[in-house]
Amino acid sequence: MAKKNQKIQSVKEKSVLSDYDFLSKLIVGIGEVSKITGIPQRQLRYWQEKGLIQTADEAGSTIRRFDYLEIKKILLIKELLEEGYTLEAAAKKIEKRMESINSAFKKLKKLS
DNA sequence: ATTCTTACA
DNA sequence: TGTAAGGA
């Protein structure tokens, strides 16, 4: 019985670790992002041109790739737009939010 | 199969 | 903004 619990515990730990792993390595194309966020590709490209969202620029490729943080940003911007915000206003608000979140996690990262 | 740019409705 | 054309 003790052995069984041990096994369950290790599975739990692994799933937590791979969860983090998954999110930090997740990088998807514009098609997927569009599909999961509901934002048309046309608009995602437009936002990116305006510099409101970033793309993982891999050397020598014109193809846009979005990581976990950008997808999160996109979702946040989408919500604000639905609440009546201007694209610019939404972007500014998100920018500040991301800044404070990132600085908070940098502090935590130093402790590990 | 996917994404990219350009351009016109 | 949506969509179609034409190339990578």
From TrEMBL:
PROSITE patterns: HTH_MERR_2. SMART domains: HTH_MERR. GO terms for molecular function: DNA binding; DNA-binding transcription factor activity. Keywords: DNA-binding, Repressor, Transcription, Transcription regulation. Residues 30-96 form the HTH merR-type domain. The keyword Hydrolase does not apply. The keyword Transit peptide does not apply. PANTHER family: MERR-FAMILY TRANSCRIPTIONAL REGULATOR, REDOX-CYCLING DRUG-SENSING TRANSCRIPTIONAL ACTIVATOR SOXR. This is MerR-like DNA binding protein. It comes from Aquicella lusitana.
